[in-house]
Amino acid sequence: MTYQPGRYPKDYNPKVHGPYYPHRFYGKPDTPFSEVKIADLGSWFSRRSLSPSSIWAAIHRGYYRWASKNLHTKVPGFAPYGQIIMLTSTYFFFLLYSERKYHRHCKYH
Amino acid sequence: MLSAFKAVAFRPVIHGNNKVVSAVAMRMMASTAAVTKVPFVGEKPPTREERIEQWDYVNSIFYGPERDTKNFPILKQPDRAESVRLGVFPARWFDLLYPKTGVSGPYVFLGGFALWMMSKEIMVIDHYFWEFPSFWIMIYILCKHPKIGPQARKYLEDKMKFEEFKYFTRPINRWKDAANAEIAKNERLIEETETSKHMYLAKKEGIQLQLEAAYRQRLQNAFQEVKKRLDFEVEKVSLKRKYEQEHMVNWIVSSVTKSITPQQEKESIKSCIDSLKRLSAKAAAV
Which sequence ranges are marked TM in the entry (chain A) (predicted)? Predict the structure, then answer.
């Protein structure tokens, strides 16, 4: 099936899965990555779909997994915003790294 | 609203006919004009029946017999975010390192990592660098300030609570109150309809009594009228008879008096005197 922007995942069936949670994986469950043996890594990766829509869906699920626990709570507090700020500064650290390299004080470390 | 819900949101996943959707998508892609007209959510407020129908429909889908609540449980919105260390780092990450490194391990790791980056000048101390510590120091001061931190926290929590009250608790309570008022009204109506049975019976009895009274009144009237007529008849007959009698008497007397001649009168007076004389002689003899 081609990628359908704005549609539910193909495997999502509301009669079985109930209301849609964007952080939930509705496909066929596989071994979690943390429980995969190193010998099985190849076969595990061969079973993964590497299409752009799957990767985007994985990013989407990851964001909502974080947001449902941190940002979308009743009283989120400062922590999720602090995490966003921290990630932004990390991103800009890598973005500006090539420029900032020129300000090094020492030649040898 | 319901039609939109049925038509667009769930049709492909429920009925499994992705062909329809893809056909519609193809047609929409082929022609710039919209093929199907989808009603807006706020176009017309749904009626109560539509709401109930929608509720039942959605419930039948989400919580039907096929629902797998074991592998796909129903989640609740958490009250607070996950616990963090140093303001931003999830406590889970620290707990992962505790068995290997001890309590201070993660902190040492963070500090050592920062020192390593500075030492190797991966993190260069340039004019950008001071933005990072100055920002976090300001945040730390604001959070730990005896007034600002707690006040901001209180303000935000109150705001959240008010929002929840405004958009969730209050409308639900209003709906509940309205429903309860309607239930009370209907119960009152039911009671009234029950009393109306008694009212009907009482009225029926009253009307029956009135009918009985009217019937008796009429009986009495009939009796009185008949009696009056009979009395009249009796009176009439008796009056006629009396009149006849009087007339006969008068007629007989007048005819008798008319038939008496002066000769007869003289004879009668004479006989009377004679009888008187006889009587006086008898009295003298005695």
Answer: 78-97
Please indicate if any CB of chain B lies within 8 Å of the CB of A22.
Answer: no
What range does the domain containing A43 cover?
14-76
Give kind and range of the element (H or E) at residue B39.
none
In eight-state DSSP terms, residue B35 is: S
Q: Is residue A101 part of a domain?
A: no
B115 Cα to chain A: minimum distance (Å) = 13
pTM given for the model: 0.61
Q: Name the token pair of B188.
A: 């009152």
Helix segments in chain B, DSSP class H? 2-4, 11-15, 18-30, 48-62, 91-101, 105-119, 131-144, 148-164, 170-259, 262-285
Say whether the ipTM exceeds 0.85: no
Task: For residue A37, tell me if it sits in a domain.
Answer: yes
Q: Looking at the 3D structure of chain A, how many domains does it have? A: 1
Q: Report the residue of chain B nearest A90, measured CA to CA.
A: B132
Note the pLDDT tens digit of each residue in B266-284: 998 999 999 999 999 998 8
Residues of B in contact with A10 (CB under 8 A): 18
Contacts of A108 in chain B (CB under 8 A): none
Is pLDDT at A96 greater than 70 in this prediction? yes
A90 occurs within a structural domain: no
User: Which chain A positions have a beta carbon within 8 Å of B67's beta carbon?
Assistant: 15-16, 18
